[in-house]
Amino acid sequence: MDQPPRDDLQLGPPSQPDAAPPTPPKPATWTASDAWLGLGLLLIVLAAYFLVIAQLGESKTLSLFVVATFEFILLIPIAVVLAIRKVAWVELGLRRFDRNALAIGCGLLAGTYILVIINNLVMVALGIGTQADTIIDMLGEIDSPFLFAFVTAIVAPVTEELFFRGFLFKGLREKYGWVNALMFSSIIFAIFHGQIATLIPTFLLGALFAYMYQRTESVFPGMVLHFAVNSLGVCAILAASQFGFI
């Protein structure tokens, strides 16, 4: 006797299960509280650093020491927090990135520079000392333009991107979202540079570097753009100083 057809029989290859949703970016293995802790630790270390410097008096050797060591202080709170959390430094964003993102960053940097130029013109019109004035005074104190250029163009982009984007921005992002974290970290980045004339430009650059981190999950695009900004500025100031324009 013929059996009725079964509904559970399938013709053809078996159906595949639904594809899994894409994996979201890996969250930071340190918290926003850790990020604030690192910032507080940085302030304590800086206060102790400048207190010791003030006790030593002014000298060319001391000025050279400050220029050579100051930027590396940013690595201390990172090292402490990562050691406590048992996190590898690669989690700061030391990974490859899409080169197309860097092209976008260059375009945004060009637009940012227009605002930077406008800000500098306003500061000059108001008689407020610019960053160039401070750099010229510093070069006169240390009499070592090559050391200054190396620290500013090479060391600063590395240490500042590791702290402000890889550590601070990424940690704050877990609690406040990337937009608020961008705002907080960029404001702190601007204040860190300690000049009224550069508050707005530095904030804008910090926001750009944080956006590049958000887009790529890597600190390297920010480092490249940071290197370009600092190198251009240092070369312009050194050239102007050499030819007597400032």
Keywords:
246 residues, 0% strand, 9 helices, mainly alpha
Shape annotation: globular
Q: Report the order of strands and helices.
A: HHHHHHHHH
For the secondary structure, the number of strands is 0
Tell me, rounded to a whole number, the average pLDDT: 85
Number of helices: 9
If you had to describe this structure to a student in words, what would you say it looks like?
This protein is mainly α. It has a domain at 97-242. The protein is built from 9 helices and no strands. Helix 4 (99-125) crosses helix 9. It is globular. Mean pLDDT is 85; it is low at 7-13 and 15-23.
SSE blueprint and pairings:
Elements: H1 32-56, H2 60-69, H3 75-85, H4 99-125, H5 131-142, H6 145-176, H7 178-192, H8 199-216, H9 220-242
